[in-house]
Amino acid sequence: MRPSSASPATGITLHLRVSPHPMHIEPISSIEEVSALLAENELPIADISLSSPLQFFGIRDAGALTAVIGLELYPPFGLLRSLAVHPATRKRGYARELVTFAESWAAAHGVESLFLLTTTAKQFFLGLGYLPALRDEAPAAIQATSQFSSLCPASSAFLSKCVAARDNPAVDGALSTSLDAPLASRSVPKG
After folding, report:
1. Which domains does the chain have, with CATH numbers?
2. Nearest alpha carbon to residue 42 among 98, 5, 82
3. Dihedral sign, CA of 172, 176, 177, 183?
4. pLDDT in tens, 129-161
């Protein structure tokens, strides 16, 4: 659907794209749902358990988990991981919105820099402002994670991004909204 609006002063018509796929990001506590979606996307699940230091956020479509992202927090560092979107719901902006949400949430919880490892999505993350990082210069907390130390191959791209509000004005504005409010009630508009 493309509503249009003509400006009487200029005669210019703007075409606005309205998303037919509204997004609602919520915390996900079901390890079974997360593991199934990650396995379907051929991502590691060996270290996911109720006792792991992971926080997952996701998007549901018709009640089913259709996209997910994970965070491990070790302030002032964090590990962004387990980004997966069900094949039937790709190309809707879910991955981008989940990353943006996770960055803001991490920054609000004391993370200054996020790190990630990927074998398939390097270009996607570079497009979101992540930069290549040297594995041997990774913070000790990140090196100690199972993703870094054993699950992701040495050939994985290792990337980082500053998400601290004081260093990143884009995050500063997002932090003005209360991220500590019930997360289940926070909707993210598709841009």
Report:
1. 21-180 (3.40.630.30)
2. 82
3. positive
4. 999 999 999 999 999 999 898 888 888 999 999
